[in-house]
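=== How it folds ===
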Amino acid sequence: MADAAQAAASAKQVSRSNLLRIALEHFLGTISGTSEQDRRRQFSSEYLFLVADLIVQRQYPDVHTALITEAEARMEAVCAAS
């Protein structure tokens, strides 16, 4: 493992200790659910929800409140079930 770490560090032109720090940060971020990929997914999801909400508010204002109420009820049902 030491040889592989040294080879990877050399390929990335960083010290082995820096490579191991980066790897540990990545691992810890992944197991805590806060990896860069997770943050990008969360941002994309939030953005899409906001866009959909804005479209409904502007183009279908008569159903907006009903949709929000239904979404809240479904969220409560999911949270209560877990």
